[in-house]
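Regression test attached.
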Amino acid sequence: MVIEEPVWREVAKVGNVPASDPLEVGIGHMAFILVRLGDDIAAYQGTCPHQSARLAGGTVIDGWLHCPQHRAMFRLLDGFVVRGGSCQRCGATNYGSRQGRFFCPTRQRP
Ligand code: FES
């Protein structure tokens, strides 16, 4: 069995991520949102696990991401959900930034 290593792609400049709103980025058919957590930036799946609303239209308040559709609240620390239509966590990732640029993995070759 061959395990293919992901290719890391730059998806945003760190300075382009707003202080209070999610920034939507994409690699191929995959969409993510980037959110500021103090000095750090975290990436989450781009659509809500409930009915696939675009989370880029959501709001960030006190460490929680609010889905724009049915108001599910996802804790930015780990994606934990506390209310709204969703009973699933929002997929948080540990992708990272380097030298002012934010990277996400993909299996697509350039
Ligand atoms: S689509 Fe997000 S809570 Fe329903």
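Expected vs. actual: identical. Residues 48, 50-51, 53, 67, 69-70, 72, 84-86 surround FE2/S2 (inorganic) cluster (CB under 6 Å).
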